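Batch manifest, entry 17 of 40.
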Amino acid sequence: MDVSLVAESGRTLGSRPASRLRAEGRVPGVVYGLKGDPIPLSVKWTDLRKALTTDAGLNALIDLTVDGETNLTVIKELQRDAVKRSVTHVDFIRIDRDAPLTIDVPLNLVGEAPALEAMKGMIDQLLYTLTIEAKPGTIPTQIDVDVSALELGTQVRVSEITLPAGVTTSVDPETPIAQGSATRSTIMLQQGEDFDENFDGEGGGDSGGDAEAAE
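Output type: structure tokens
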């Protein structure tokens, strides 16, 4: 489902005018792409925030209207203040609904790893987004990654992901997404098992010695 957003063009370029816009509750930005001229613009922060809080997040398809003309767009870049984390600038890019788009999609780990839990290990996520190619209407909001088979020292790789229909990726299939890692508890558990094995071995030897002495 597309999100509708209305922007105003004709903003004055420069840091001071941009600061005034932000003080008025607007976010400066630009729209470009599809061989069209770049258009400096501004959008209401409340409207932009609403567009960003759909299930699609930053990958939402946005019908952006500027000066009465509407184009299908996605957010190419969102700049934030380093301290306040407030949005300071937004870049929209025009897209063709029938042309594949290269975009990053979040990876969502699902499932439990009983073998890893038995060793008090933890799941360490190494890759949080996957770069995919898909037409705008088939872009998933996220891609689930099953980690239930993870054991200590094993990994789930890109090649093991099941991509939705119409979605491809050029990322190296051997790229790790998540792995089973040791924790302090894992090490303590392993040390405890090693101690028990050694103790049992030593105990058996002592018992034999005592028996021989008794004879």
